[in-house]
Design brief:
The complex is a heterodimer.
Chain A (H helix, E strand, L loop, with lengths): L19 E12 L2 E12 L3 E5 L6 H8 L7 E6 L13 E4 L11 H10 L7 H7 L15 H13 L5 E5 L7 H16 L3 E6 L2 H7 L2 E6 L2 E6 L1 H8 L2 E6 L4 H5 L4 E7 L2 E6 L2 H11 L4 E7 L2 H10 L4 E3 L1
Chain B lengths: L16 H20 L2 H22 L4 E2 L2 E2 H31 L2 H7 L4 H30 L6 H28 L4 H16 L11 H6 L4 H12 L8 H27 L5
Antiparallel strand pairs in B: 1-2
The chains are: A alpha/beta, B mainly alpha.
């Protein structure tokens, strides 16, 4: 499939799947009446980067919290390295970067890292953690004196200081500017090159694309799509063709490359990753085709498209 | 929960005893530094009892007696109780409420930190601040107030107040689990000041209104105050054992309440 994206990142694709190191199996989680997760099944294999992508409130953080043993599931099983993550001992091989409103501000950067390193049996040397997270120059600064990007880097350092095999990053780049985001991406890539397994959540498609081997799209507590970044992009970052056609919707649906067709008063709206070939086909089949307009689907539309319909279908 | 097939088994060995102890020590060290560098905590918890003591014990009531002992000695016991209560309720309660409510405790819980290390460290540090407060009061009393206590008496007073502060740490823990990060300081102040007054820490109990005198035995600081006063030679109500039992009882009730909050947070009580 041709992917019409401005930025296509070349990445060696993993050919062999490692053993499952973290798993949600038929997991549901409610907070009162709110169903945060509904029957979610997710495997994370050793050595891969899985990105959980979804809008705010999709259940991404809930999934991470369950895998970290910070909450219990209402149904289903949660497994990390073959054990219940709620047992603190099973956290010796995991590291986590969570969204936190306030970190103790009077401790210095190196003190925070030193303390978290001490929890692990074989932590990285302090200097190495500080260097990896780009904190060398600010090691003696108090947390409260740091900028937003520096604070995120400290939290990142806390997640890797124990040299864990499995790292959870919950919205690691939220609130960062473009430059700081790229720097953190580089650091995450370094982890991957050292054979670590990473599960990261994000609401930026671009971020999932830049880092992940596999993307899981979560919306309203359900997995609505799963695949390589290329596969997801083809479904979420494609184009939309608006036109008035005399063809039956079912036939339009059957044109190769068409992902979804919506009919409304004004005509039809076709979602596709390959607008050129779909248009050629449309003009060939329908001489009276009119009002043609090609629209770039934004991420919002893409999420909406995925949310409302997760397979190729017609919507009347 | 059973291990699903195909999931890698844990290969991590148990922590050694030495490693566990070093985690607790580091946790306590950084908890201490964290609070020490927080002037709103370190200055106010230490300075308030010291200021009150200097004013009422050393300046205004110089040479006066109360219940057969020097006021300067009497007030070391009561402001000492007042001080350890503040250090514990603010250090443990406000600290926990803030770290819990703003997500920091969750970051710690997601790490392999032994959960008890967090609470043990907080208790040790509150007790350390209690020790600083009592030492300051004793030093002032000895040097400027003409207070004479035997070495054994001094140690017993310090030991009583530090051990008794455990009850207030437990109360702080209960508050920390049920108060929000912004409401916790207000809640602690609302408890701290009236409790201190009604327990006879500012004015001797027998000078309080009748009603308050009857309420006092139901307040934890009253019992610690009586124990401390007993050590400096003031005749107190009832035997020491009864006061210790009361303090232990309040501690257990508080721990029971805190446990509900702890289990709720651990996701074990529902779901």
């Amino acid at each position: 499939m041709i992917v019409s994206m401005d930025e296509v990142l070349q990445r060696p694709t993993k050919t062999t799947e490692g053993p499952v190191v973290a798993q949600l199996k038929g997991v549901s989680k409610n907070y009162g009446d709110v169903k945060a997760l509904r029957n979610v099944t997710l495997d994370v294999h050793a050595g891969e980067v899985v990105s959980v992508l979804g809008p705010n409130g999709a259940g991404k953080t809930t999934a991470v919290k369950l895998l970290l043993g910070l909450a219990g599931a209402n149904a289903g099983t949660v497994n990390v390295f073959g054990g219940d993550p709620r047992n603190p001992k099973n956290r010796l091989r995991t590291g986590a970067m969570l969204q936190v409103a306030r970190v103790p501000e009077t401790l210095r950067v190196k003190e925070h890292v030193d303390l978290f390193s001490s929890y692990y049996p074989k932590p990285l040397p302090l200097a190495e953690t500080l260097a990896t997270a780009g904190l060398k120059e600010i090691a003696n600064r108090k947390f409260g004196e740091l900028s937003g990007g520096q604070k995120q880097r400290v939290l990142f350092a806390l997640s890797i200081c124990g040299d864990p095999d499995l790292i959870f990053l919950d919205e690691p780049t939220v609130g960062l500017d473009v430059e700081a985001r790229r720097v953190l991406w580089e650091e995450i890539r370094k982890l991957v090159s050292r054979g670590k397994t990473v599960l990261l959540t994000t609401h930026y498609l671009q971020e999932a694309d830049a880092l992940a081997d596999r993307v899981v799209v979560l919306n309203k507590g359900e997995i609505i799509a799963e695949g390589t970044p290329a596969q997801i992009k083809s479904r979420t970052a494609g184009k939309q063709i608006r036109c008035v056609s005399s063809l039956p919707v079912v036939e339009v649906c059957g044109i190769p490359g068409v992902l979804e067709v919506r009919a409304d008063r004004d005509g039809i709206l076709i979602s596709t990753a390959v607008p050129d070939s779909v248009l050629r086909e449309l003009f060939q089949r329908d001489e009276r085709l009119s009002g043609v307009e090609v629209i770039s689907a934004g991420l919002e539309e893409a999420f909406l498209a995925l949310t409302q319909d997760n397979s190729k279908s017609e919507v009347a | 929960m059973s291990a699903a097939s195909g999931v890698l088994s844990p290969t991590v060995s148990e922590r050694s005893m030495g490693h566990t102890v070093s985690i607790y020590a580091k946790e306590a060290k950084y908890e201490f530094l964290k609070l020490l560098r927080l002037p709103i905590y370190s200055l106010s918890t230490i300075l308030f009892p010291v200021m009150f003591y200097v004013l009422f014990g050393l300046l205004l009531n110089r040479g006066h007696q109360q219940d057969g002992v020097m006021v300067a000695a009497y007030l070391i016991a009561t402001y000492g109780t007042f001080g350890v209560m503040g250090a514990s309720l603010f250090g443990f309660g406000v600290g926990l409420a803030g770290e819990r409510g703003l997500g920091w405790l969750e970051v710690k819980r997601a790490s392999p930190m032994p959960p008890s290390a967090y609470f043990v460290a907080k208790t040790i540090v509150c007790m350390a601040f209690s020790l600083i407060i009592i030492s300051a009061l004793l030093t002032l009393g000895f040097v400027f107030g003409g207070v004479h206590l035997a070495a054994g008496q001094t140690l017993k007073l310090v030991g009583t107040l530090v051990l008794g502060s455990g009850t207030f740490c437990a109360m702080g823990m209960a508050i920390g689990y049920f108060a929000g990060p912004t409401s916790a300081p207000a809640i602690v102040n609302l408890l701290y000041l009236p409790l201190s007054f009604a327990s006879g820490l500012w004015i001797p109990i027998d000078m309080l209104p009748r009603l308050l005198q009857r309420v006092a035995p139901f307040l934890p600081p009253c019992h610690l105050g009586q124990l401390a006063l007993g050590v400096v030679g003031v005749p107190t109500t009832g035997p020491a054992l009864g006061h210790w039992q009361a303090l232990a009882g309040f501690a257990l009730i508080s721990l029971g309440i805190a446990r509900i909050g702890f289990q709720r947070d651990e996701g074990k009580s529902f779901g």
